[in-house]
Design goal:
Blueprint: E1 8-12, H1 17-28, E2 32-37, H2 42-50, E3 55-59, H3 65-79, E4 84-87, H4 103-113, H5 115-131, E5 134-139, H6 152-172, E6 177-184, H7 190-198, H8 202-209, H9 218-229, E7 240-243
Parallel strand pairs: 1-2, 1-4, 2-3, 4-5, 5-6, 6-7
Helix pairs in contact: 1-9, 3-5, 4-6
The structure holds 1,4-dihydronicotinamide adenine dinucleotide.
1,4-dihydronicotinamide adenine dinucleotide binds next to α1 and α7.
Length: about 250
Amino acid sequence: METMKEKVVMITGAAAGIGLACAEAFAKAGATTILVDINKPEPQTRKLTDEGFKAVAYGCDVSDTQAVKEMVDWIVATYGHLDAALNNAGIQTPQRPMAEITDEEFDRTVAVDLKGVWNCMRYEIIQMLKQGGGAIVNTSSQGGVTGFPGQAAYIACKHAVIGLTRTAAIDYAAKGIRINAICPGAIRTPMAEELIRRNPNLEQELIRDIPAGRLGKPEEIANAVLWLCSPQASFVDGHALLVDGAFSI
Ligand code: NAI
């Protein structure tokens, strides 16, 4: 069903994993979907356009404030509006206890995982105020409400994304802009595969702790994000939605 027909949607971190699954879901729901990644995700976008969906690739480092501004300006100049956005690009810090994380590693994690969300939200909101509304989803994590060993900088950012989401939701609720966070549990993506590659026991350890008994699929996050951006979620605002097979309960 084309629930996103006529809508323009931007998704960051769309070259792989959760972002790519979300881009596919929005494009299949009829949206003009802008796939944003640090390197322009052309093959992923072409796959969608070859299937007849409306998709465009855009290269942008979300930690670069000026580049993010130019991207949103380009979207508005090209399509006239920006109806929904998923701020999802993220990186992990190397798996080490807090005191062993270098300042450079901390700074880069904050630059992408927190400032990147901040940058995108700011310019999305400026446009959504002009057009009278919109929907934004920020990717936090199950680790946005719990701790996780060896990931202090990453987890700090994911907690911060929830605080940012809640406060911005309050600031802009009366202006018709809904802002929510999605909190994935362990989802089988290139990011998760890399962690499992570095620690082969991790997959079994995770599965043991997930009541659903398995890792999640990127499409299961995409279904939730699509709903959060849809009119069916019109009174859902400032929420941090856990999609984690009951991992964090
Ligand atoms: P992934 O590593 O498969 O994909 C992340 C994408 O973000 C990549 O395509 C990468 O190139 C892009 N990216 C990285 N830095 C960027 C930058 N500076 N500018 C633009 N794009 C950039 O990761 P995955 O697993 O799909 O994660 C997506 C989001 O979900 C991340 O925010 C992650 O923290 C979050 N998440 C993932 C979980 C998992 O189990 N996979 C669990 C909880 C949260």
